[in-house]
Design a protein that fits this description.
The complex is a heterodimer. Chain A is 77% helix and 0% strand. Chain A is an all-alpha fold. Chain A has a single domain (25-221), classed as Four Helix Bundle (Hemerythrin (Met), subunit A). The radius of gyration of chain A is 22 Å and the shape is elongated. Chain A starts with a helix and ends with a helix. The termini of chain B are far apart. The chains are: A mainly alpha, B mainly alpha.
């Protein structure tokens, strides 16, 4: 917020955090929340298209699908699920610290969340490398252990990379947002009265967590037995 | 801010429940239940997603308008999936005449 804006706000007798087209801070926060949800719902539709594509191919080629499930790294997938859930927990504690105006705790929880996000991305990288070594990346170098499923398995590995890749891209954006929040918090940009960006990034982070909660069983668990 | 701050205990309880559900879904996936593997895995995913949305994203205390938007979004997703599946899953129900040579 600029100096001019603060002076403007004080002259009109409201807190500098409250934009004067809102009645009160609650209404301001409610409209931010609603706007963020509208964005997240466009994301639901975005991922929804991929989930629909996945469902169609799973139904069209159930045997090939079952055969690819066995090549997914369940250990890394499970650890990553736990890591992401843990990061959602620390994110919600960061929002809570902001509500209570505890700056040190806020920065601490944001840093832990950031770290967990990076752990997730690192493990994802290990998994992608494994697929590269095994020649499981669709394209000219693709090889498959069960030759009768050569073409169908490529479709399913393509879906695996498209879905987890888009999810990982969202994680990268989330990491960038967290770095921004940590920098803002360190510069005392938040107070117990105004911490809207932390709540909004929190919503985004949890949404990305929910996407993974659905990706994990669909890609790693179903068809293993 | 009139928003009541939620206790760490509540968040921790949700967190632990999510971890237990993750363990359960991984465990059940090792047992062959046929078609029910899919049902169990997705049911657990829906429960986990709902917990995250309700407690971590605070939908349970959101304004009615936000709740309406969330429901509308899920409804639209349902339209996408149900209409697509009503086509693909029912294609084999009716024998259609084959096209092309040798029909």
């Amino acid at each position: 917020m600029s100096e001019a804006e603060m002076v403007h706000a004080r002259e009109r007798g409201h807190e500098p955090e409250l934009k004067h087209h809102f009645d009160d801070p609650d209404q301001q926060l409610d409209s931010s929340t609603l706007g963020m949800w509208v964005f997240l719902l466009t994301e639901v539709m975005f991922f929804g298209g991929m989930f629909a594509g996945y469902t169609i191919y799973r139904n069209t080629y159930p045997d090939a699908f079952a055969s690819t499930s066995r090549f997914m790294n369940l250990a890394i997938g499970s650890i990553n699920t736990a890591v992401l859930i843990f990061s959602s927990f620390t994110m919600v504690l960061a929002v809570r610290s902001a509500q209570l105006g505890r700056k040190k705790a806020l920065i601490g929880f944001l840093v832990i969340t950031l770290f967990l996000g990076l752990v997730f991305l690192g493990l994802k990288g290990v998994e992608y490398h494994e697929k590269w070594v095994d020649h499981h990346i669709p394209g000219p170098g693709f090889r498959y252990e069960e030759p009768q499923y050569f073409h169908q398995a490529q479709i399913l590995f393509f879906l695996y990379f498209a879905m987890t890749g888009l999810h990982a891209l969202h994680m990268v954006v989330g990491v960038g947002l967290l770095v921004t929040l940590i920098a803002m918090a360190a510069r005392n940009r938040f107070s117990a009265h105004w911490f809207t960006p932390i709540e909004m990034v929190g919503l985004y982070w949890h949404f990305v967590d929910i996407v993974w909660i659905f990706l994990f069983p669909l890609l790693y668990l179903i068809g293993r037995t | 801010m009139t928003h009541r701050v939620v206790s760490v205990k509540t968040y921790a309880a949700v967190f632990i429940t999510l971890l237990i559900l993750t363990g359960t879904t991984v465990g059940v996936a090792q047992i062959n239940l046929g078609e029910y593997n899919f049902v169990v895995a997705l049911t657990i995913a829906v429960i986990k997603g709902t917990l995250v949305a309700m407690f971590f994203m605070d939908v349970r205390r959101a304004t009615s308008l936000t709740k309406l938007f969330v429901c509308a979004g899920l409804f639209w997703l349902a339209i996408l999936l149900v209409f697509v599946l009503s086509d693909y899953l029912t294609r084999s129900w009716l024998p259609l005449p084959r096209w092309g040579p040798g029909a």
